[in-house]
Each structure stands twice: as C-alpha cells, then as structure tokens.
Task: structure prediction
Amino acid sequence: MAKLWDKGKNTDAMVLEFTTGNDYAVDMNLVPADILGNIAHVRMLHKIGMFNDQELDTIEQGLIDILEDYKQGKFEITPDMEDVHTAVENALTERIGELGQRIHLGRSRNDQSIVDMRLYVRDMLLQVTVAALDCADTILHFARRWWDTPMPGYTHTRPAMPSSMGLWAGAIGEQILDDLMLTGAAYAMMDQCPLGSAAGYGVNIKIDREFTSGQLGFARVQNNTLAVQNSRGKFELAVIQSCQHLMIDLSRAAADIIFFSQPELGFITIPDHLTTGSSIMPHKKNPDVLELVRAKAADMNGLATSVASMLTGLVSGYSRDLQLTKEPVIKALDITLASLQIMKRMFEGLEVNDKKCVEAFTPDLFAADAANEGAIQKNIPFRKAYKIVSENLDKMQMGNPKLIFKSRTHQGAPGNLKVEDAHKRLDLHRLAITHRIKTGDEVIKRLLTKTSQGGQDKPAE
Result:
C-alpha cells in the first residue's frame, strides 16, 4: 500500500509501526469528513482550472462511491495505510486511476487532518448540544414538578438550611445551560476553515480558500496559515474543556442522587431498571450508572491534562506530537454524549419521597433564619443575633418546612425558582441549534450531489 510520503526508500518496519500507532483505527471516525473535505478541495481545484468538468465528475463519483462503501461496512483502514487520507486517496486511485493521485495538489496532510477533525467535531458538538438541551429540559421539568417539596440543604455533606427538591434540580438544569456557552465558544473556534494552510506556510498556487470554506459550510476562513497549524490541538483542548464542564455538573448530579437515595435518607428512589445487581448479595440495587458518570468525569480531566501537556513547549509549525491530540477529543465527545443521554434517562425515572424529605428537617436547620429574624425584630447587629442563636441551639423551635416557599421568594430562591425563564433560555438555544443542524445537512447534501447535477448550487434564501 503506497504511502503519501513514499520517496522510494525503505523505512524501518518498527519505525512505521511506532509512528502509525493506532492512528489508522482512530481515523475510521473521520472517513466521512475526509471525503467531504476532498470533494470541496477538488471543486476548488476545478474552479481555478486544475480539473476539467469530466475529471471533476469522475473524482466526485469515486469519492461518493467510497463513502457508500464505508456506510455499508466495506471500507477499512489497515495499519499499512497509516491514516484516513492515505486510505481514501489510494482507494480513489484504485477506482479511477492516476487521476486520483492528483487530488492532493495544493494541500498537505496537515491541513487535511485539521479539516477532518473540525468537520467531525462540529457535527459531534451539535449532537452533544442537543443531548445537553434534552437533558436540561428533562431536569427542569423535574424541578417544576417537585418545586414545592421541601428538603434539607447541605454544606460539607451535613444538614445546613432549608432547601427544596425544585431548587436542587433547577440548579443542575441551569448549570447545563451555562455550560453550553463554553460549548458554543468551542464550536466557534472549530467553525473556521483550515484548508489552504497546507503545512503551515501556504502554497504557490492561486487557490481560493473562501470558495473551499463556503463549500464546507464554515463560518469563516482561518486566516493566518501558520496560526492554523498552531491552533491544532489547542482548539481540540477547548472542546475537551467544554465537555469537562458538562461532565463536572453531571458528576455532581450523580453524586447527589447517590447521596439522596441512600436508605438512611431516602429522599429519592432510583427505579430498579436503572440499577444493577451483585453476584453475591441478592438484595443489592447498585447505582452503577451514576458511579460511572463520576468516573468518566474524572477520565475527562485526564484527557484535558493529556492534550494540554502535549502542547506545552512545542515550537511553531507541525510536530508529530499533534497526531496524539485526535483520540482524546473523540473520546471526550463520546463520553459526554453518552453521559448526557444516560442522565436524562435517570431523571426521567427518579421517584421523590415527599414524606421522607419533610421528616429529615430538624430545628437547627432554621438557625440561620432565626438569626436573620432576630437581627431585624430586635434591631441588633446580625453578629449579635448569630451569637444569641448559637448559644441557644438546644432551645430552637421546629419550623414549618412548607413555609420556606413563602419566606424565600426572592429571585432564584425555593419560592421563586423562575424555571420558566430557564426554559426560555433553553428554547432559544434549541432554535439556534436546529438552524445550525439544518444548514449543516444542506451543506452535506450539496457536497454529495455531483457538480454536474447541481451540487454546487446554493439553495434559495
């Protein structure tokens, strides 16, 4: 199998094996993106006169056929091929002859690899965003349903102040929406076309980078060709970090559910179908799903650290270190997508025990309330009122948990959660993401329709 960099000299087999690593397997994720990038590139070469109409038609058909083979499980990348770029170009050459070897003109595997990752990551970030919106929607509905169920609030895992099931769940839903600001920023970074940067220093051909960018539906061309290369890995790190924030919030939610559902508290019950069992203890109903979400959040921290460490100290331009930044971001996106989907399922099944939530209240949960009330009623400094309460904790009177919804009515408190405002934010996010997905689908449809059949025609606005 010919390598794209083959100069006719023998390379040590151990060197080839070591430098390839598992890149060939990782790159199976990138086959559709590589084919789309190839189609856009050859259309640009056709536009500047490097291919005639018949040649373009032959190349486009060959690439479309390879994609169809991939979808049917008939296309594979083997270790001797090294990567997706070699595999696709060689497969194309086998189909259409020497013409297939001409598609690399004005391009390097460097910018080809970057565009593959950006196309792949853009699509995956849209999927993650949809999953995050679905998860947040479910959690916010849970908050609205149980908004008036009082429960103890905890600090340091110890009872602290009156809270509510709605406040707890609403917090998780809003945190996920906040996380999507970072996801959006990561998407914007990835939504820049790198093609034409070649190995970081441009090419001596009058290529049309704006045309290629438009074909692939990017928001803009990433201008400076060296900046394109230097952004490799760094943009991937931003994506991992956006996933990291989502996973931190899912991990906390998972830990909370484990804590609240333990038999000693029993505020929440995890239904049997969302638990697993023990090989020795017949009675066990284990929250394995939640424990694995916690573990996967920790794994995410490792992925971010790994990529950041790879980038530190690199000189400008491409270094082979950057090959290893692909797999962590692919794994991060897979982890986040699966975790959002399973946590949505978890919140759909959770059962709340109102009685146990109320029974868990003790007089000292109202100590801070008593200090506030004492300071106001006696017109004394809060610090004095605090001391009076602290010296009389054994005399504290039990408050009515249900009254917290009348005493805590400022914005965001248990009695005024404004869940409807969070839902409005969610709906705006969903409207934007729906439009972005529709636009992306149209781009792919045009790329997979041959130019001779109107593939480069843009739909009417």
User: Anything to note?
Assistant: The chain has three domains: 13-105, 110-141+166-205+222-351+421-442, 363-398. The chain has a mean pLDDT of 94.
